[in-house]
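Researcher: Quick one. two chains, 772 residues in total.
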Amino acid sequence: MILRHAFRSLGRNRVRSLVTLLGVASLLFLVSLLVSILGGFEMASHTDGSERRLITSNEVSLTFPMPVSYWEKIRAVPHVVEVCPSSWFGGKPNGSDRQEDFFAQFFTDPDALLRVLTEIQVPPEQAQAWKEDRQGALVSDKLARRYGWKLGDRLPLVGDIYPMTAELNIRAIYAGGEEALYFHHAYVDEAMGRPGIVGTYVILLDDPANLSSVAESVDALFADSDAATKTQTEKAFQAGFASMMGNVVGLITQISLVIGMTILITAANTMAMAVRERTTELAVLRAIGFPPGRVLRLILTESVLLTSLAAFIGIGGFALITWLIFGVGEFRLPMVWFPLMLPPRMGLLLSLAAIAVGLLAGLVPGLLAARRPVVDGLRRA
Amino acid sequence: MALPLKVNLRGLLRRRTATLLTVAGMSLMVMIFAIAWSLDAGLRSVFAIGGSPDILIVLRDGASAETTSFVPRDDEPIITSQPGIALDPASGEPIASAEAVTIINQARRGGAGGTANVIVRGLGPQGFSLRPQFRIVEGREIHPGLNEVVAARAMAQRFQGCGLGETLRVRKTDFTVVGLFEAEGSPYESEVWADKTDLAAATGRDGSSIVLLRVPEEIDRARVKAAIEGDARLSCDVKPQQEYFAKQTESAMPLAMLGGMLTFFLSVGACFAAANTMHAAVLARAKEIGTLRALGFSRLSVMACYVLESVVLSLGAGVVGLLLAALVLALRPGYTGTSNWTTFSEVAFRLRLTADVVLTVMVTSVIIGVLGGLFPAWRAARKPIVEALRA
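Model:
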């Protein structure tokens, strides 16, 4: 009964309800967008299979390498299943230095890589072709789709860090995992005159329970050497990359809170106007025996209905649009290396927040209306 | 066209609660995008004042940043002996600085936690004199050979080990911070500077990352560039220093995107908020509108008045929003940082509420007011006189 009444009340001043609804919905759309950027950061620092992996890098920073001799030494540590040398190449595809053409490129050991990256799927004959071609490259299916690469295509990567151009042949395409390109460590090592250096080692363990003990034993191995190491979980390693964006997380959280406040003010304004307009009517309700609590409930329901509808349009609309864009096509924003998707959990949380804001917005006008003496309200006609 | 503007302005004041609530809501939205644009403006200004027009930077061929560049020691004399490079009047040596740039992973200060890449630059006396903006603000300059560093004041605030008297570890060597410097807001304010020989001993790296050359004459600059790039013994790129920094403004792209996104959606929200209030105003003043029309004011005048009323509302919100943004900036005067995607290190900058930002915000406010007021104003003007008077 109350819900029907609330619907009717909203329908009374259609323009106002619609304008408020769309205003709040556009703000909720924006908050969804912001939250999905945050969600993307979280997703970017978590891939399937990463829970059993450690990453070892030079203690000083990623720009300092480690000797290739660490490979065998780390492999001998108990609980280590496989170790894969993996170094950042940072080349420009076809010499293009546009920011959009920035993607992850690593030179690595093919056999070890395929064992360590448990989450990717490569057709066996392609994997074989990649291993056999010294200049072969393994690429993510998303990258291949974006650039229209096919097996056998040539791809020159002009080195930014290394003074060489890697002339690569696309030999294999993988599904799953993160967007990246992998090629042979041996190829770069030879072209650079065999310096025998490695940027990071990716370590696969037998059991996630051993992560911290193995990390400690690895770092202890090299503590006194020229290149001391820092071993951390893959998740922590990638979170470190995400934190390079600075305090984006804090910024977005603060912005979202302020937007929440503006929604509260907007909705409260509308409810105050609606209540003022209906002073007499509400007094009549009281006069025919409605208790004050019921009048309050009526107004709160109307307010919550308003913000819930706005949440449905704003948050639901965002989810639909992103699903259409990212679910079907391969659309990428420059510098954003993950698809923008609103995690369902966050969508739910936002909707709950919208309902809470609706309750708050209706509270003051509702209490005023419920407390107003009946006679006073009737006289205001 | 006669405009009964007074009626509208009084109307705003009469419906005080609604007007105040609307302005409050809208000004919060304005504040957010004003701050977002200040972030963008702050980061851009860092790179805009980075370079000097008469300085050339020599990088390894293909390297897009100092941090990925390498110039072998044997190449340095070939580069610095080019004719056209300014000479030091005292020593007769060319004014050139071969510098080594190292990235170290350093823990942040404060609650945010985590680590970020910090640039440590090794340079000699020429390097300091090539940056006239460099100024020690606390402590003293470094003495070579003692493993001392000076840190930018912004770095001292943001990173552990960078404060005056603290120690910064580069591989196995501890460097003492003996001074803090400022550099007029240039990208150097995101760095720590050490003596070149001390740093090379610590990193075990010979050679340099880049060479800076002062070439006062424009014709000479073109000649030096051609000579170095064409020399078969070298594989180097030569760029004007300003161009080098301009390229890095691309790091501001995510912030500009954020600013654009926030502005668009918040403006839509603010439009609706204005429309809501204006709609209520039109409803409440039906009789008044009818009277004005009966007195002979045209539909267009009535419409223009209500649009203007809406613009006054949104301009009010614009001013309050800017004041709020200025207040937020004044309360949090410190540095913020973001990743410089070219050098893979963190760049520190201040938020700047520049004239451009103020202008953008005010223009956006006017647009919000016009768009938000248009529909209610049209409804007001369209109403038949008799019906309006009877309401």
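Chain B touches chain A through 61 residues (CB under 8 Å).
Researcher: Thanks, that's what I needed.
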